[in-house]
Amino acid sequence: MPLRVGFVILAASLLVGCGGNAADQDNAAPAGAASPSPSAAVVSALPLPTGKAPTRTYQVANRTDTYTRDGSRTLRTTTWYPKGTAGKFPVVLFSHGLNGLPEDFRPLLSKWAAAGFVVVAPAYPNTSRNSGKFDIADVLNQPADGSFVLTQALAGPLKDIMDPERLGAAGHSAGGITTVGLFTTSRDPRLRSGVVFAGAAIGVGSGFSGAAVPLMFVHGDADEVVSYASGKEIFDAAPWPKALFTLPGGDHSTAYMRESAKAYPAVAASTLDFLRYSLYGDTAARGRLAADAKPAGTLDDKLG
Question: Which of 54, 167, 289, 299 is the most exposed place for a label (fewest CB within 10 A)?
């Protein structure tokens, strides 16, 4: 199924029974949820960690574990992590998009791991590629899946190198919706940071809740699947410290998945700057963010 068609179906399906108009699917309000509201209740901001990110590049290893939620939701999870090192590292939960797999993002996720992060990436049971039962509307169950996977991973074989006090979430497309959901309808209070690639608020709204944490949004303004306008809308609605990296002429996925893409180096560098800042407290990385984004686009920086 083409991704654009998939997102039209996703948005339309979430409007069933709520009397909505499916003509504007990408910007649709979620069914059964509060309308997007920039004035959502916000608790005081979580303090940033204090410290500096590692300057070395780690060798990267990966492993695959399978977790089962509620007896039926099987989550095959790939984890990229710094190999053969002592100490604890921040953890980033990564969510793929419709018909995707964690491995599609291996270059970017392994780069994050090489910089000193543990990246935990589940394949969602009903939206991943070759899923036995593909169900677009199941995206709404994925924030809970993601929180479950984080809990399992933190108690799993790599627990000794994971810092449970420095957790973030990131995701692309439907995985971006999943990530937004982890800060809205399914708020996971453990999360201290979020990165949304080509995401929107479909089904999860923009009622951000809980302690404020930094968010970074990355979106191509020629995205043919999830409109730039819908990505900009959720950025504008977020009441927390935030940044929007706009990729002029950028499509839905190339800059995030292909090392050969012109914008990929800037996306990789700037998101690492953001993660180093938000999960290590590295102010020098914060200072590099605008310069590292500049070669590929524009940065609307409201991180404070």
Answer: 54
| Per-position DSSP letters for 136-194, written without gaps between them | GGGGGGHHHHHHHHHHHHHTSTTGGGEEEEEEEEEEETHHHHHHHHTTTTT--TTEEEE
Q: Which two tokens stand for residue 2?
A: 């083409």
Measured distance CA(173)–CA(136) in Å, rounded: 12
Counting as low any pLDDT under 70, the low residues of the chain are: 1-43
The residues pairing with 219 across neighbouring beta strands, listed in sequence order, are 246
Q: Can you say how many angstroms the Cα of residue 76 is from the centroid of all Cα atoms in its chain? A: 18
Contact 289, 301 (CB under 8 A): yes
Note the pLDDT of residue 6. 58
| CA–CA distance, 228 with 125 (Å, rounded to integer) | 27
Nearest to 228 by CA among 298, 159, 289: 298
Half-sphere exposure of 45 (CA within 13 A, CB side): 14
Amino acid at 10: L
Distance CA 75, CA 126 (A): 10
- What six digits make up the tokens of 58? 């780690």
pTM metric for this prediction = 0.89
Beta-carbon contacts of residue 21 (< 8 Å; ≥ 6 apart): 15
Q: In 58-94, which positions are buried (b, 16+ CB within 10 angstroms) versus exposed (e)?
A: bebebeebebebeeebebbbbbbbbeeeeeebbbbbb
Q: Where are the alpha helices (DSSP H) in the chain?
A: 3-15, 106-114, 142-154, 174-181, 228-237, 254-257, 264-275, 283-293
Asked if 150 and 99 count as a contact pair (C-beta separation under 8 A), the reply is no
How many residues comprise the chain?
304
Tell me what pLDDT residue 8 has.
60
Confirm if 214 and 21 have CB atoms less than 8 A apart.
Answer: no
